[in-house]
Design a protein that fits this description.
This protein is an alpha/beta fold and 616 residues long. It contains twelve helices and 44 strands. The strands form seven sheets. It has a 20-stranded parallel sheet that branches. Strands 2-6-10-14-18-22-26-28-30-33 form a ten-stranded parallel sheet. Strand 3 (112-113) and strand 4 (118-119) form a beta hairpin. Helix 6 packs antiparallel against helix 7 (457-473), helix 9 (498-520) packs across helix 11 (561-575) and helix 11 (561-575) packs across helix 12.
Length: 616
């Protein structure tokens, strides 16, 4: 495609891409307001029926050169002469013309190509034309451009099997009856910005942007329905979008089903409004639903998609689920582009009221939860994958540390990656500022409750761990509380790391055994004096038990198997809150008291951690 073609007044510019198109293809700027039916057109008008007192312009149909009238008001002789001069592939310019069903049929018949058995046109402009009766463009091959901007179809409009080789403009078009485009193909841009579909809009098995050679320029080929109004069903069954599909600010009054269809690029539903219950089935590289409003229930069944729900409004339950098997009615491999990973990834829930949101079998590894409300009521079903902490031995500053695998938020990854002493293996925020630990603690707390309400105790345990981590690192947490949390973390991983608690228990028991062997056990067990009979008389001698004496042998002689056995019995009894009954030295007595307090606590923390992983 030449540069001249790109900058042609009849072509879309990059600046027009996100603007509402009123009559871009007719030479009117894309951001200009749509022309009123009584406004003066910018083409030579027919003027039939003009009245200076009421309507000074009269008929707004474009004159048919070299005549002074439009096609509808030509005399029978002049019309026959004009139609006789048409050949397949001819350009047509009938802007503002009122075309009856018979006149349109006769016009297209003159463009019939016997070689293909189809009507074939060049550049066509029916902008602001009015089609009275049924308008049938079945099988028509439209050439470089086809403009229907601002046109009005008073009855059904049929484009079955039509082929649009160039840009197709239907911006602001009004379809009073059914609009049918089954098996039509749009080689380049298809613009329906601001179009109104009063009845059904049927786009079954339609190809959008199928010009593979033009697709290499990465210019155009998008299907745009920005600001369109769908009064009936919006049927895109089996449709294939080779680039992006834009439905920004579109309104769906009665659309019950959209899809299944394939979109190689992004499916954009930002600020769209769905008034009734709808099911959307799509295999798409991305689904953008920023500020989308669902005024009724909705079910999104997706494949391959990365979903952005930022600031979406959910008035009723909305479910997002990954379709585990391909949609059987469509070919998901469109022109070999992109769609390789069938997972559904949710990227953002910021600003969403999650009370009505249900997520099933989706990937939340990169999801931003911060900013959502009612996260404690979010429902996650099936296998929802969350980000995990880097596991194994990692570097933290100059020191190696060992991280235990756990489910985390993407926001914690961002905070740790930006933290000066963070270990490697955490994912950065890619230019976004990381949230502070206090804000993340609140998010973890709400999601923990959501897991608990869903009877997912292991998942809740991981989020409790994340909440405690953020509290421990939050500078706003009082220093004494942070110290207590640090001790709780070091001893047992907040009561969630059984191996850590058992490790400390083993260390405490070894230390206690060592102290008992060295200083706690007396040199000899004291032997109490007994009572008996003397000269026929029974006597009882009440004597005090001698105090145990510290051993006076060298340390190496105290480390015997007999003393080890006694020390081990003392320690094991102390773990279960039982007194050993063993005579101990002063040091041994205090050591036993300390072990009877600390070691059962460590054992309890280990059991608590195990219970947190197996509880249902």
């Amino acid at each position: 495609m030449t540069s001249a073609a790109v900058h042609s007044p009849l072509s879309c510019s990059v600046l027009d891409f996100y603007r509402p198109s009123s009559d871009v293809l007719s030479g009117v700027t894309a951001n200009a307001p749509a022309a009123s039916p009584l406004s003066t057109p910018d083409w030579p008008c027919c003027g039939h029926g003009s009245d200076p007192s009421a309507d000074a312009v009269g008929c707004r149909g474009r004159r048919v050169d070299p005549y002074a009238e439009c096609l509808a008001h030509l005399s029978t002789t002049d019309r026959a002469a004009y139609l006789a001069g048409l050949l397949p592939g001819a350009d047509l310019d009938h802007r503002g013309t009122s075309l009856s069903e018979e006149l349109l049929t006769e016009l297209l018949a003159r463009l019939h190509d016997p070689a293909t058995d189809r009507s074939r046109t060049g550049k066509v402009s029916f902008s602001r034309a009015e089609f009275a009766g049924e308008a049938r463009f079945d099988g028509v091959e439209f050439g470089d451009e086809a403009r229907f901007n601002g046109a009005k179809f008073t009855a059904d409009a049929r484009f079955d099997g039509a082929q649009f080789e160039g840009t197709a403009g239907f911006g602001g078009t009004e379809f009073a009856g059914d609009a049918g485009f089954p098996r039509a193909s749009f080689g380049r841009d298809a613009w329906f910005d601001g179009a109104t579909f009063h009845e059904q809009a049927r786009f079954r098995w339609v190809e959008f942007g199928g010009d593979a050679e033009f697709n290499q320029t990465k210019f155009g080929l998008d299907a745009r329905f920005n600001g369109a109004r769908f009064g009936g069903d919006a049927r895109f069954f089996g449709a294939r979008f080779h680039r992006n599909a834009h439905f920004n600010r579109a309104a769906f009054a009665r659309a019950a089903v959209m899809g299944p269809f394939v979109c190689v690029g992004e499916l954009v539903l930002s600020e769209a409004v769905f008034d009734v219950a709808v099911t959307i089935e799509a295999a798409t590289a991305g689904l953008v639903c920023r500020r989308t409003r669902w005024a009724s229930t909705a079910a999104l069944r997706l494949r391959y998609a990365g979903v952005d729900l930022s600031d979406a409004v959910l008035e009723y339950p909305v479910s997002i689920a990954a379709q585990s098997w391909p949609f059987v009615v469509i070919d998901e491999d469109v022109a070999g582009h992109g769609l390789t990973d069938p997972r559904v990834r949710v990227h953002s829930l910021r600003g969403v009221d999650a009370a009505h949101l249900v997520l099933t079998d989706v990937d939340l590894t990169d999801c931003r939860f911060a900013g959502a409300v009612h996260l404690d009521q979010l429902r996650m079903e099936g296998r929802c994958v969350l980000a995990t902490a880097p596991s194994g031995v990692r570097r933290r500053g100059p020191w190696p540390v060992r991280w235990t695998p756990r489910k985390t938020l993407a926001e914690e990854h961002h905070w740790r990656a930006a933290h000066d002493t963070a270990a490697d293996g955490w994912t950065s925020a890619d230019g976004e500022s990381a949230l502070d630990p206090g804000a993340l603690a609140a998010v973890y707390r709400q999601l923990r409750k959501a897991f608990e309400d869903g009877k997912n105790e292991p998942g809740a345990a991981d989020f409790y761990y994340g909440e405690m981590e953020m509290r421990r690192h939050d500078p706003a947490t009082p220093r004494a509380e942070r110290g207590l949390l640090a001790l709780y973390w070091a001893v047992s991983g907040y009561g969630l790391r059984a191996s850590r608690a058992l490790g400390w228990l083993l260390v405490a028991m070894i230390a206690t055994v060592s102290v008992m062997m060295l200083w706690g056990l007396p040199k000899d067990d004291p032997k109490p004096e007994s009572t008996g009979t003397l000269t026929g008389r029974s006597i009882t001698l009440r004597t005090d038990t001698p105090d145990p004496a510290n051993p006076d042998e060298p340390y190496r002689k105290r480390l015997t198997s007999e003393r080890f056995d006694k020390s081990l019995r003392v320690v094991i009894n102390s773990v279960v809150f039982r007194s050993s009954g063993q005579g101990l030295t002063t040091i041994g007595t205090y050591t036993e008291m300390a072990s009877r307090l600390s070691e059962p606590v460590l054992l309890g923390l280990a059991l608590l951690a195990v219970r947190g992983r197996v509880k249902r």
